[in-house]
Amino acid sequence: MTGSPLNVQLLLTGNEIMSGDTVDSNSAMIAQRLGELAIGVYRKVTVGDDVPLLKEELAAMTATADLVIVNGGLGPTIDDLTAEILAAVAGVPLEEHPEAVAHLQRWCEKRNLHLNAANRKQAMLPAGAAIVDNPIGSAVGFEMTVGTCRVICTPGVPGELRSMLDGIVADLSARLQRPMERNILRLQTFGLGESTAQQMITDNMPDWPQEVELGFRAGAPQMEIKLTVNNAAAAAAQRRCREQLEQLFAGHIIGEGNITLAQRVLQLLRERGATLTTAESCTGGLIASLLTAVPGSSEGFHAGFVTYSNAIKQSVLGVREDTLAQHGAVSEEVVREMALGALDRASADYAIAVSGIAGPDGGSPEKPVGTVWLAWGDRDHIRTRGLCWPVERTLFQTMIAAAGLDMIRRILLGIEEEPRYFGQRRMR
Questions:
Q1: Fewest C-beta atoms under 10 Å: which of 28, 201, 221, 403?
Q2: Fold of domain 8-175
Q3: Could you write out the DSSP letters of every residue in 258-300?
Protein backbone atom coordinates (compact mmCIF):
# COMPACT_ATOMS: atom_id res chain seq x y z
CA MET A 1 0.00 0.00 0.00
CA THR A 2 2.53 2.55 -1.14
CA GLY A 3 1.01 4.13 -4.22
CA SER A 4 -1.54 6.87 -4.66
CA PRO A 5 -4.40 7.03 -5.42
CA LEU A 6 -5.53 4.24 -3.14
CA ASN A 7 -8.60 2.09 -3.39
CA VAL A 8 -10.16 2.67 0.04
CA GLN A 9 -13.38 0.97 1.11
CA LEU A 10 -15.42 1.31 4.30
CA LEU A 11 -17.37 -1.47 5.99
CA LEU A 12 -19.87 -0.19 8.59
CA THR A 13 -21.37 -2.84 10.86
CA GLY A 14 -24.32 -3.07 13.21
CA ASN A 15 -28.06 -3.72 13.28
CA GLU A 16 -28.56 -0.35 14.96
CA ILE A 17 -27.30 1.45 11.83
CA MET A 18 -29.42 -0.69 9.51
CA SER A 19 -32.55 -0.05 11.60
CA GLY A 20 -31.96 3.69 11.83
CA ASP A 21 -31.66 3.63 15.62
CA THR A 22 -28.14 5.00 15.18
CA VAL A 23 -27.32 7.55 12.49
CA ASP A 24 -24.07 6.83 10.67
CA SER A 25 -21.86 9.87 11.16
CA ASN A 26 -18.67 7.84 11.39
CA SER A 27 -18.24 7.21 7.67
CA ALA A 28 -18.41 10.97 7.05
CA MET A 29 -15.82 11.54 9.77
CA ILE A 30 -13.48 8.96 8.24
CA ALA A 31 -13.95 10.31 4.71
CA GLN A 32 -13.26 13.87 5.83
CA ARG A 33 -10.04 12.88 7.56
CA LEU A 34 -8.88 10.81 4.60
CA GLY A 35 -9.67 13.80 2.38
CA GLU A 36 -6.90 15.71 4.14
CA LEU A 37 -4.50 13.35 2.34
CA ALA A 38 -6.40 13.58 -0.96
CA ILE A 39 -7.57 10.01 -0.39
CA GLY A 40 -11.12 9.36 -1.53
CA VAL A 41 -13.44 6.59 -0.43
CA TYR A 42 -14.12 4.31 -3.38
CA ARG A 43 -16.90 2.28 -1.81
CA LYS A 44 -18.92 2.17 1.41
CA VAL A 45 -21.12 -0.70 2.57
CA THR A 46 -23.24 -1.09 5.70
CA VAL A 47 -24.05 -4.61 6.92
CA GLY A 48 -26.02 -5.70 9.98
CA ASP A 49 -24.83 -8.20 12.59
CA ASP A 50 -24.99 -11.11 10.16
CA VAL A 51 -21.90 -13.35 10.21
CA PRO A 52 -22.20 -14.88 6.70
CA LEU A 53 -22.93 -11.50 5.08
CA LEU A 54 -20.10 -9.79 6.93
CA LYS A 55 -17.64 -12.51 5.93
CA GLU A 56 -18.77 -12.32 2.31
CA GLU A 57 -18.50 -8.53 2.16
CA LEU A 58 -15.14 -8.29 3.92
CA ALA A 59 -13.68 -11.02 1.71
CA ALA A 60 -14.85 -9.17 -1.41
CA MET A 61 -13.41 -5.90 -0.16
CA THR A 62 -10.00 -7.33 0.73
CA ALA A 63 -9.80 -8.88 -2.74
CA THR A 64 -10.18 -5.50 -4.48
CA ALA A 65 -9.11 -2.74 -2.08
CA ASP A 66 -5.75 -1.41 -0.93
CA LEU A 67 -7.24 -0.38 2.42
CA VAL A 68 -10.41 -1.41 4.22
CA ILE A 69 -11.53 0.44 7.34
CA VAL A 70 -14.06 -1.55 9.36
CA ASN A 71 -16.11 0.51 11.81
CA GLY A 72 -18.09 -1.01 14.65
CA GLY A 73 -18.39 -4.38 16.32
CA LEU A 74 -15.44 -4.16 18.76
CA GLY A 75 -17.42 -4.13 22.02
CA PRO A 76 -18.00 -6.74 24.72
CA THR A 77 -21.43 -8.03 23.68
CA ILE A 78 -22.49 -11.05 21.65
CA ASP A 79 -23.31 -8.91 18.60
CA ASP A 80 -19.78 -7.44 18.40
CA LEU A 81 -18.43 -9.63 15.62
CA THR A 82 -15.60 -7.77 13.88
CA ALA A 83 -12.66 -9.72 15.36
CA GLU A 84 -14.36 -13.04 14.57
CA ILE A 85 -15.15 -11.98 11.00
CA LEU A 86 -11.64 -10.71 10.23
CA ALA A 87 -10.06 -13.86 11.68
CA ALA A 88 -12.29 -16.02 9.46
CA VAL A 89 -11.51 -14.00 6.31
CA ALA A 90 -7.77 -14.03 7.09
CA GLY A 91 -7.85 -17.77 7.89
CA VAL A 92 -6.34 -17.39 11.35
CA PRO A 93 -7.63 -18.24 14.85
CA LEU A 94 -8.70 -15.81 17.53
CA GLU A 95 -6.28 -15.49 20.43
CA GLU A 96 -6.00 -13.34 23.51
CA HIS A 97 -3.73 -10.39 22.76
CA PRO A 98 -1.54 -9.45 25.77
CA GLU A 99 -1.38 -5.78 24.80
CA ALA A 100 -5.17 -5.63 24.51
CA VAL A 101 -5.53 -7.27 27.94
CA ALA A 102 -3.13 -4.72 29.45
CA HIS A 103 -5.15 -1.91 27.86
CA LEU A 104 -8.36 -3.29 29.35
CA GLN A 105 -6.80 -3.63 32.79
CA ARG A 106 -5.62 -0.01 32.75
CA TRP A 107 -9.03 1.14 31.54
CA CYS A 108 -10.83 -0.73 34.34
CA GLU A 109 -8.39 0.37 37.05
CA LYS A 110 -8.93 4.05 36.21
CA ARG A 111 -12.66 3.56 36.75
CA ASN A 112 -12.48 1.23 39.75
CA LEU A 113 -14.08 -1.52 37.70
CA HIS A 114 -13.51 -5.27 37.71
CA LEU A 115 -12.28 -6.76 34.43
CA ASN A 116 -15.04 -9.27 33.77
CA ALA A 117 -15.34 -11.94 31.11
CA ALA A 118 -17.52 -9.81 28.85
CA ASN A 119 -14.93 -7.04 28.77
CA ARG A 120 -12.10 -9.53 28.32
CA LYS A 121 -13.79 -10.67 25.08
CA GLN A 122 -12.45 -7.43 23.56
CA ALA A 123 -8.90 -8.81 23.87
CA MET A 124 -9.69 -11.83 21.65
CA LEU A 125 -8.19 -10.73 18.33
CA PRO A 126 -7.13 -12.41 15.10
CA ALA A 127 -3.71 -14.04 15.44
CA GLY A 128 -1.02 -11.68 14.14
CA ALA A 129 -3.12 -8.54 14.46
CA ALA A 130 -1.40 -5.33 15.55
CA ILE A 131 -2.98 -2.97 18.06
CA VAL A 132 -4.33 0.45 17.02
CA ASP A 133 -4.44 2.60 20.14
CA ASN A 134 -7.82 3.73 21.49
CA PRO A 135 -6.98 6.55 23.94
CA ILE A 136 -10.41 6.73 25.59
CA GLY A 137 -12.36 3.51 25.07
CA SER A 138 -12.11 -0.02 26.45
CA ALA A 139 -11.85 -1.73 23.05
CA VAL A 140 -8.54 -1.43 21.23
CA GLY A 141 -8.51 -1.06 17.49
CA PHE A 142 -6.51 -3.57 15.50
CA GLU A 143 -5.18 -4.12 12.02
CA MET A 144 -3.68 -6.80 9.82
CA THR A 145 -2.97 -7.51 6.18
CA VAL A 146 -5.17 -9.89 4.22
CA GLY A 147 -3.51 -10.70 0.91
CA THR A 148 -2.36 -7.28 -0.31
CA CYS A 149 -5.07 -5.35 1.55
CA ARG A 150 -4.54 -3.58 4.85
CA VAL A 151 -7.56 -3.86 7.16
CA ILE A 152 -7.98 -1.42 10.06
CA CYS A 153 -10.76 -2.12 12.58
CA THR A 154 -12.14 0.82 14.57
CA PRO A 155 -14.84 1.24 17.25
CA GLY A 156 -18.33 2.49 16.46
CA VAL A 157 -18.46 5.02 19.30
CA PRO A 158 -17.91 8.38 17.50
CA GLY A 159 -15.78 9.93 20.25
CA GLU A 160 -13.47 6.92 20.33
CA LEU A 161 -13.17 6.86 16.54
CA ARG A 162 -12.37 10.57 16.50
CA SER A 163 -9.60 10.09 19.05
CA MET A 164 -8.02 7.32 16.95
CA LEU A 165 -8.14 8.97 13.55
CA ASP A 166 -5.22 11.34 14.19
CA GLY A 167 -2.87 8.38 14.55
CA ILE A 168 -4.39 6.48 11.64
CA VAL A 169 -4.19 9.47 9.28
CA ALA A 170 -0.62 10.27 10.37
CA ASP A 171 0.42 6.67 9.70
CA LEU A 172 -1.23 6.69 6.27
CA SER A 173 0.53 9.94 5.40
CA ALA A 174 3.88 8.44 6.33
CA ARG A 175 3.22 5.35 4.19
CA LEU A 176 2.34 7.26 1.03
CA GLN A 177 5.20 7.49 -1.45
CA ARG A 178 3.89 10.78 -2.85
CA PRO A 179 1.96 12.58 -0.10
CA MET A 180 -0.32 15.26 -1.46
CA GLU A 181 -0.11 18.90 -0.42
CA ARG A 182 -3.86 19.11 -0.08
CA ASN A 183 -5.17 22.02 1.96
CA ILE A 184 -8.81 22.55 2.86
CA LEU A 185 -9.85 25.96 4.14
CA ARG A 186 -13.20 25.72 5.92
CA LEU A 187 -15.26 28.86 6.46
CA GLN A 188 -18.18 28.64 8.89
CA THR A 189 -21.16 30.84 8.09
CA PHE A 190 -24.59 31.55 9.56
CA GLY A 191 -27.62 33.00 7.82
CA LEU A 192 -26.75 31.83 4.30
CA GLY A 193 -28.27 28.93 2.37
CA GLU A 194 -26.33 26.86 -0.17
CA SER A 195 -28.26 28.12 -3.19
CA THR A 196 -28.02 31.74 -2.05
CA ALA A 197 -24.28 31.48 -1.45
CA GLN A 198 -23.67 29.75 -4.78
CA GLN A 199 -25.68 32.33 -6.71
CA MET A 200 -23.87 35.21 -5.02
CA ILE A 201 -20.51 33.65 -5.89
CA THR A 202 -21.59 33.01 -9.48
CA ASP A 203 -22.81 36.58 -9.91
CA ASN A 204 -19.93 38.34 -8.17
CA MET A 205 -16.91 36.07 -8.75
CA PRO A 206 -17.22 34.91 -12.39
CA ASP A 207 -13.46 34.26 -12.71
CA TRP A 208 -13.27 31.64 -9.97
CA PRO A 209 -9.85 29.93 -10.33
CA GLN A 210 -9.92 26.31 -11.51
CA GLU A 211 -7.24 25.29 -9.03
CA VAL A 212 -9.50 26.15 -6.07
CA GLU A 213 -12.26 23.59 -5.55
CA LEU A 214 -15.41 25.14 -4.08
CA GLY A 215 -17.67 23.05 -1.86
CA PHE A 216 -20.55 23.50 0.56
CA ARG A 217 -21.78 21.53 3.56
CA ALA A 218 -25.18 22.60 4.78
CA GLY A 219 -26.18 22.04 8.37
CA ALA A 220 -28.25 23.51 11.16
CA PRO A 221 -27.50 26.13 12.17
CA GLN A 222 -24.26 26.73 10.27
CA MET A 223 -23.19 26.24 6.67
CA GLU A 224 -19.59 25.44 5.76
CA ILE A 225 -17.88 26.73 2.64
CA LYS A 226 -14.79 24.72 1.64
CA LEU A 227 -11.92 26.00 -0.48
CA THR A 228 -9.67 23.08 -1.44
CA VAL A 229 -6.33 23.15 -3.23
CA ASN A 230 -4.07 20.20 -4.02
CA ASN A 231 -0.65 21.85 -4.11
CA ALA A 232 1.25 24.70 -2.52
CA ALA A 233 1.32 26.67 -5.78
CA ALA A 234 -2.46 27.21 -5.49
CA ALA A 235 -2.26 28.64 -1.96
CA ALA A 236 -2.20 32.25 -3.20
CA ALA A 237 -5.37 31.70 -5.24
CA GLN A 238 -7.01 30.11 -2.21
CA ARG A 239 -6.16 33.18 -0.10
CA ARG A 240 -7.55 35.53 -2.75
CA CYS A 241 -10.80 33.58 -2.87
CA ARG A 242 -11.09 33.76 0.89
CA GLU A 243 -10.59 37.54 0.85
CA GLN A 244 -13.25 37.94 -1.84
CA LEU A 245 -15.69 35.77 0.07
CA GLU A 246 -15.13 37.85 3.20
CA GLN A 247 -16.09 40.97 1.25
CA LEU A 248 -19.03 39.26 -0.44
CA PHE A 249 -20.57 37.65 2.64
CA ALA A 250 -19.38 40.24 5.16
CA GLY A 251 -20.72 39.57 8.63
CA HIS A 252 -22.14 36.14 7.79
CA ILE A 253 -18.72 34.47 8.11
CA ILE A 254 -18.15 33.29 11.68
CA GLY A 255 -14.59 32.03 11.30
CA GLU A 256 -12.38 29.21 10.06
CA GLY A 257 -12.16 25.52 10.83
CA ASN A 258 -14.92 23.99 12.93
CA ILE A 259 -15.65 27.04 15.06
CA THR A 260 -19.23 27.42 16.30
CA LEU A 261 -21.21 30.55 17.03
CA ALA A 262 -20.98 29.84 20.77
CA GLN A 263 -17.20 29.44 20.59
CA ARG A 264 -16.82 32.65 18.61
CA VAL A 265 -19.02 34.64 21.00
CA LEU A 266 -17.09 33.39 24.03
CA GLN A 267 -13.81 34.14 22.28
CA LEU A 268 -14.90 37.72 21.62
CA LEU A 269 -16.20 38.16 25.17
CA ARG A 270 -12.90 36.90 26.56
CA GLU A 271 -10.90 39.29 24.36
CA ARG A 272 -12.94 42.21 25.69
CA GLY A 273 -13.17 41.08 29.30
CA ALA A 274 -16.96 41.12 28.98
CA THR A 275 -19.73 38.79 30.16
CA LEU A 276 -23.07 37.56 28.81
CA THR A 277 -26.35 36.39 30.29
CA THR A 278 -29.37 34.76 28.64
CA ALA A 279 -33.13 34.90 29.29
CA GLU A 280 -34.90 32.16 27.36
CA SER A 281 -38.47 31.06 26.92
CA CYS A 282 -39.10 29.23 23.63
CA THR A 283 -35.52 27.88 23.37
CA GLY A 284 -35.71 26.29 26.81
CA GLY A 285 -32.12 26.98 27.83
CA LEU A 286 -30.54 25.93 24.52
CA ILE A 287 -28.48 29.13 24.20
CA ALA A 288 -27.02 28.62 27.66
CA SER A 289 -26.39 24.95 26.88
CA LEU A 290 -24.49 25.81 23.69
CA LEU A 291 -22.33 28.28 25.60
CA THR A 292 -21.60 26.02 28.57
CA ALA A 293 -20.65 23.15 26.26
CA VAL A 294 -17.51 25.15 25.43
CA PRO A 295 -14.62 24.58 27.87
CA GLY A 296 -13.78 27.72 29.83
CA SER A 297 -17.18 29.28 29.18
CA SER A 298 -17.41 30.53 32.79
CA GLU A 299 -15.05 33.37 31.85
CA GLY A 300 -17.67 34.95 29.61
CA PHE A 301 -21.01 33.43 30.59
CA HIS A 302 -22.51 34.54 33.90
CA ALA A 303 -25.98 33.01 34.12
CA GLY A 304 -28.88 31.67 32.12
CA PHE A 305 -32.55 32.05 32.99
CA VAL A 306 -35.20 29.72 31.57
CA THR A 307 -38.46 31.56 32.23
CA TYR A 308 -41.13 29.59 30.45
CA SER A 309 -44.29 30.68 32.27
CA ASN A 310 -45.51 34.23 32.63
CA ALA A 311 -45.39 33.94 36.42
CA ILE A 312 -41.69 33.03 36.32
CA LYS A 313 -40.96 35.83 33.87
CA GLN A 314 -42.37 38.17 36.50
CA SER A 315 -40.85 36.66 39.64
CA VAL A 316 -37.40 35.79 38.25
CA LEU A 317 -36.76 38.54 35.70
CA GLY A 318 -39.05 41.29 36.89
CA VAL A 319 -41.19 41.45 33.76
CA ARG A 320 -44.19 43.60 34.66
CA GLU A 321 -47.61 42.01 34.90
CA ASP A 322 -49.23 44.79 32.90
CA THR A 323 -46.66 44.35 30.10
CA LEU A 324 -47.59 40.70 29.80
CA ALA A 325 -51.29 41.44 30.00
CA GLN A 326 -51.19 44.19 27.37
CA HIS A 327 -48.74 42.71 24.85
CA GLY A 328 -48.50 38.96 25.54
CA ALA A 329 -45.43 36.87 26.30
CA VAL A 330 -44.30 36.86 22.66
CA SER A 331 -43.76 40.56 22.18
CA GLU A 332 -41.09 43.20 21.79
CA GLU A 333 -41.94 44.74 25.14
CA VAL A 334 -41.60 41.47 27.06
CA VAL A 335 -38.25 40.40 25.57
CA ARG A 336 -36.87 43.86 26.25
CA GLU A 337 -37.83 43.58 29.93
CA MET A 338 -36.49 39.99 30.03
CA ALA A 339 -33.12 41.19 28.75
CA LEU A 340 -32.93 44.08 31.20
CA GLY A 341 -33.98 41.84 34.09
CA ALA A 342 -31.31 39.27 33.21
CA LEU A 343 -28.63 41.97 32.98
CA ASP A 344 -29.59 43.25 36.40
CA ARG A 345 -29.73 39.88 38.14
CA ALA A 346 -26.60 38.41 36.53
CA SER A 347 -24.52 41.62 36.65
CA ALA A 348 -23.44 40.86 33.08
CA ASP A 349 -22.41 43.22 30.29
CA TYR A 350 -24.58 41.78 27.50
CA ALA A 351 -27.84 39.85 27.31
CA ILE A 352 -29.82 37.74 24.86
CA ALA A 353 -33.57 37.26 25.43
CA VAL A 354 -35.99 35.20 23.33
CA SER A 355 -39.71 34.47 23.51
CA GLY A 356 -41.62 32.74 20.75
CA ILE A 357 -44.08 30.08 19.58
CA ALA A 358 -42.13 26.93 18.76
CA GLY A 359 -45.21 24.87 17.87
CA PRO A 360 -46.65 22.70 16.64
CA ASP A 361 -49.54 24.24 18.59
CA GLY A 362 -50.11 27.60 20.23
CA GLY A 363 -50.20 29.89 17.22
CA SER A 364 -52.87 32.37 16.20
CA PRO A 365 -53.60 34.43 13.08
CA GLU A 366 -51.83 37.39 14.69
CA LYS A 367 -48.92 35.32 16.01
CA PRO A 368 -48.56 32.13 13.96
CA VAL A 369 -46.30 29.23 14.90
CA GLY A 370 -42.70 30.28 14.28
CA THR A 371 -43.19 33.81 15.58
CA VAL A 372 -40.36 34.93 17.86
CA TRP A 373 -39.08 38.13 19.40
CA LEU A 374 -35.37 38.55 20.13
CA ALA A 375 -33.68 41.15 22.28
CA TRP A 376 -29.95 41.62 22.64
CA GLY A 377 -27.49 44.24 23.77
CA ASP A 378 -26.26 46.03 26.87
CA ARG A 379 -27.93 48.25 29.47
CA ASP A 380 -27.56 51.35 27.32
CA HIS A 381 -28.92 49.87 24.10
CA ILE A 382 -31.24 46.86 23.90
CA ARG A 383 -32.04 46.00 20.30
CA THR A 384 -35.10 43.97 19.32
CA ARG A 385 -36.40 42.19 16.26
CA GLY A 386 -39.50 40.13 15.52
CA LEU A 387 -39.08 37.20 13.13
CA CYS A 388 -41.16 34.35 11.80
CA TRP A 389 -39.28 31.05 11.40
CA PRO A 390 -42.04 28.50 10.67
CA VAL A 391 -40.12 25.23 10.84
CA GLU A 392 -40.28 22.06 12.94
CA ARG A 393 -39.98 22.70 16.69
CA THR A 394 -36.44 21.44 17.26
CA LEU A 395 -35.10 23.21 14.18
CA PHE A 396 -36.90 26.39 15.25
CA GLN A 397 -35.17 26.30 18.63
CA THR A 398 -31.80 25.58 16.99
CA MET A 399 -32.05 28.47 14.56
CA ILE A 400 -33.39 30.97 17.10
CA ALA A 401 -30.65 30.11 19.58
CA ALA A 402 -28.10 30.63 16.81
CA ALA A 403 -29.68 33.93 15.78
CA GLY A 404 -29.39 35.23 19.34
CA LEU A 405 -25.72 34.29 19.51
CA ASP A 406 -25.15 35.76 16.06
CA MET A 407 -26.53 39.15 17.05
CA ILE A 408 -24.24 39.34 20.10
CA ARG A 409 -21.33 38.35 17.84
CA ARG A 410 -22.19 41.18 15.50
CA ILE A 411 -22.35 43.71 18.35
CA LEU A 412 -18.97 42.59 19.68
CA LEU A 413 -17.45 42.93 16.21
CA GLY A 414 -19.12 46.27 15.50
CA ILE A 415 -21.07 44.92 12.50
CA GLU A 416 -23.96 47.30 11.88
CA GLU A 417 -25.27 45.71 8.68
CA GLU A 418 -28.34 43.57 9.28
CA PRO A 419 -28.08 39.86 8.45
CA ARG A 420 -29.87 38.55 5.39
CA TYR A 421 -32.20 36.40 7.47
CA PHE A 422 -33.79 39.48 9.02
CA GLY A 423 -35.32 40.24 5.65
CA GLN A 424 -36.03 36.62 4.78
CA ARG A 425 -37.67 35.84 8.14
CA ARG A 426 -39.44 39.10 8.85
CA MET A 427 -42.85 38.96 10.48
CA ARG A 428 -45.83 38.83 8.17
A1: 28
A2: Molybdenum Cofactor Biosythetic Enzyme; Chain A (3.40.980)
A3: T--HHHHHHHHHHHHT--EEEEESTTTTHHHHHHHTSTTGGGT
